[in-house]
Write a structure and sequence with these properties.
The complex is a heterodimer of chains A (about 120) and B (about 220). By secondary structure, chain A is of the alpha+beta class. Chain A is built from 2 helices and 6 strands, in the order αβαβββββ. The chains are: A alpha+beta (about 120), B alpha/beta (about 220).
Chain lengths: ~120, ~220
């Protein structure tokens, strides 16, 4: 539902940077989306299609890199995948102090384009 | 580039967090699906704590002020935010609302988010803790379907336990699911309608307020 807002933020970010660097046509944007974010790749692509109508983004492709969910135990330091059960108890030492170290990403990795 | 898409909201949330810390208010962000009973829980909680704890509420709703009107007159200062269709509150909206509440020097500020288990989970409002609310009638699958919201919560409230006998809801499975997704979450099982289980939750709130005011004295921060 909020993917439109996220996409607006993405396009604003890229537009601002493109202006700064004299880029007039963006060809590709690479976005990193963690598995445990509430941003659905399908909805992001849809929002991109709707919102990228201006000449700067004509023909641009949105690539989405998914990052898997990984947790790290603060007690024994071991890393593990919480899996589809979302089990955040360390399988090594049963520790409950567990940090998400991958899977919460939501950022523009890079974009490519042409200058005048 | 590495530009986070929620970067602007993050910055504004940090501004809120600093302002809340200066004021000494304990700020709780309540999130749930529509109809889980957030407003009723707040009404009953305010009734329990009124006169002992200074309370304030920011009510998030798409278009109406029905919830704010319910809270008014219960003994808490309340500000309504209408998101005009947006599915969540963001840090900037909360900042605006806080400007109207700061002078009341609340000890606890409840932010009732828009009823939605998806989008609000991504937006930091500067709160000290998140409270996930779910109710027995929604069924057992909510924590496993919306793990982010339950993972990020410090407190989980299970409401409508008075209806357990009328549903297939399994308390054991609920405790299991929450215990796996978020083993350190504090869980309160209650019924805002009958008042069952409300006391431990209210007691927890009072303890948090007390701990904060003792800390303030320790650090010589000026009380109200």
């Amino acid at each position: 539902m909020h993917e439109m807002g996220l996409m607006q933020a993405l396009l604003d970010t890229v537009r601002g940077s493109a202006e700064q660097h004299g880029i007039t046509r963006v060809k590709k944007i690479r976005l990193v989306v963690g598995e445990m974010t509430m941003a659905q790749p399908h909805s992001l692509q849809f929002a991109f299609g709707v919102l990228s109508q201006e000449p700067l983004f004509q023909g641009a492709v949105l690539e989405i890199e998914a990052r898997p969910l990984v947790a790290t135990c603060k007690e024994c330091g071991g890393s593990f995948s919480p899996g589809r059960d979302y089990c955040f108890i360390c399988p090594g030492c049963q520790g409950q102090g567990v940090e998400i170290t991958s899977g919460r990403e939501l950022f523009v990795d890079y974009y490519e384009g042409d200058a005048e | 580039m590495g530009s986070p898409l929620l970067g602007v909201n993050q910055l504004l949330a940090q501004r809120n967090r600093a302002a809340f810390a200066r004021s000494g208010a304990l700020v709780l962000n309540l999130m749930s699906s529509p109809g889980s009973g957030k407003t009723t829980i707040l009404e009953r909680t305010i009734e329990q704590l009124a006169g002992r704890v200074r309370l304030a509420v920011i009510e998030g709703d798409l278009y109406t002020d029905q919830d704010a009107r319910r809270i008014e007159g219960k003994g808490a200062a309340v500000v309504q935010i209408n998101t005009q269709g947006a599915c969540h509150l963001d840090a900037d909206m909360v900042w605006e609302a806080w400007q109207q509440l700061a002078e009341r020097q609340p000890q606890v500020l409840f932010i009732e988010n828009v009823g939605n288990l998806v989008c609000p989970a991504e937006f930091d409002l500067g709160e000290a803790a998140r409270v996930a609310v779910m109710s027995v009638t929604e069924g057992n699958d909510k924590p496993t379907k919306y793990p982010l919201l339950f993972r990020q919560a410090s407190v989980v409230l299970l409401n409508k336990v008075d209806l357990l006998g009328y549903t297939d809801f399994s308390l054991e499975r609920f405790r299991d699911d929450v215990g796996r997704i978020n083993p350190r979450a504090l869980v309160f099982e209650l019924s805002a309608r009958t008042g069952e289980g409300l006391a431990p939750w209210c007691q927890w709130l009072e303890e948090q307020v007390l701990a904060r005011s003792e800390e303030d004295e320790l650090h010589g921060r000026a009380g109200p």
